Amino acid sequence: MVIGTGYVGLVQGVCLADLGNEVTCVDIDKSKVEKLSQGISPIYEPGIEEMIANNLKAGRIKFTTDLSGNIEGNEIIFIAVGTPPDEDGRADLKYVIAAAEQVGKNLKHYQVVVNKSTVPIGTGEMVRQTIKKYYKGDFDVVSNPEFLREGSAIDDWIHPDRVVLGDVAGRKAAQKVAKLYEVLGAPILITNIETAEMIKYASNSFLATQISFINTLSNICEKVGANVDEVSKGMKLDRRIGAHAFLNAGLGYGGSCFPKDVEALIQIANDNKVKFGILEEAEAVNKEQRQRFVLRVKKKLIDLKGKKIAVWGIAFKPKTDDIRMAPSVAIIESLISLGAKIVAFDPVAQENLERIMPEVKFAGKAADACKGADALVIITEWDEFKQIDLEKIKKTMKAPNIFDGRNIYDPKQMKKNGFDYYSIGR
Active site residue: 15, 221, 257, 370, which one? Predict the structure, then answer.
């Protein structure tokens, strides 16, 4: 059983079913369950609807709002509900606790309960104590943090770098859960619960720090005449750093994981009276990077009042429609506050922005957004932007100003083509 059908829960349930397991996915949202039962995914994730349809047809997965009527017969129960940040950045555990209460009220025999949600240290024990209030029999709690990237979540699940499982002494429960993952051929690390919970926060926060590091470096590169892309390439050739390091300069990190996990780990440090200055600065740099980008636009256009700004890309990264903590939201808000009129385009995320920013106009094609624009701002590096006919774009623009927040074009070529082109750290 998987409780919760957001990014983590739905991918977990569908991928487990695809391996031949019998999976029941539970969610309190009736309309979401109805759509899933018809093979319609509530999230944009490449390949997921086909997998849902295949496993529904094979009878390996079902979707329901009824936890109590379906809990019997399951060996393992995954809790994969949301843990949004509260006002001070801590992970809000109300949905995790609510799920644990429902499990405790309905357990009738030994089962393994697995925390799949991103949760702070100590949540495993909190879940254990919550279940014990309602069920006096034998059960175990395991921590199994997820390391999925939106847009490639299915591939990340099927080809993981590692599987982390946290358990108490004896570890029979973790061994039981490990059998689900053995077929994937990845290293399986079994630790205590607190260590497993920390690995998730530590990994995301370290990656976020890399992003803020390279973005700070990009600002120095602009001052001294260096090219941050080549600096990054040179760094990645160091085996101690590696080819897959998060060292691409841009507008900073966003989405549902990095901002939330960085804030949460800072709060965990504060709660334990540990000064985590490096991480606090990484968070500050991330916010400043967006404002620096807006100031660059303002410096060029001087007065943004009434100016038309085309925006390419709304999602926080390609291959997803997620705009949670996306750089686009902060940048567009700032441009509007300065008087600019925004016309935006994104292949999949436009509806999500429209719900929270109705004052933004949207174009049906990337090229259409640029018609009569005083500037083009590129925020998300969708592949379709990389091969677009820029000569045609220039002819329709009021002024050939491009502010590239993702370094997708070559500066020399853009200058040759007659654009006033501004990128990051080059």
Answer: 257
